[in-house]
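Much of our argument rests on the idea that a fold can be written as discrete symbols. Part of our work consisted of pairing the sequence of a single chain with a tokenised description of its backbone. No coordinates are needed to read the tokens, only the vocabulary itself. The record that follows shows the chain in one-letter code together with its fold in token form.
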Amino acid sequence: MREINPKETTRASAFEMWMSSPMPMVTLTKTFNITHIYKISKKSGLKLNMLLCWCICKAASQIEEFYTLPIDGKLFRFNKLAVNVIVPNAKGGINSCDIPYTDNFEQFCEDYATRTNSVAKSCQSIFEEDYMVVGTSAMIATELDCIVNQYTDKFLNPMVMWGKYRKSWLKKTLPISFQFHHTQMDGAHAAKFLDILQREIDGVNI
């Protein structure tokens, strides 16, 4: 990653307006049809959470604004994306695990499995400081309509959050909350990301 001058980017006015705001986070919620990846998960044995994380990263990689992030009052540019998942560990607690994104689906699956298994056993988190990390949080104990995450200046990364998927006769749906820093992107960028995410979910082909 490298520091960039906000005035030389399309985020200049947003940086000036929102970096000093006490609450610059925005949350959008959309209900997704996840029937396609649910069927893939059941047929292949691949984890539904892993499939969803790959779709999230693939969608994010198509939005330029995901590659910039405000950190400590400055704006940084990244060349690579990763996704963070919360992993239950062997001691009954939780750890964080960053998984680098790649267009190679098989490689992503291998990295996801290897890293999450390692974190679960070692109880040691894995962080990728040189990646723009999209956070995720899956609270699948119950169905949720919306999630609003805590705001802290220690973590300004975008967050994608969901609860338990919903069953109906012919499909599975999942409300997903997307929280982002307004300096990083505007609502239009976030809405575009959510639309692309649905297309990626529908288009998974393994």
User: Anything to note?
Assistant: The chain has a mean pLDDT of 95. The two ends are 32 Å apart (CA to CA).
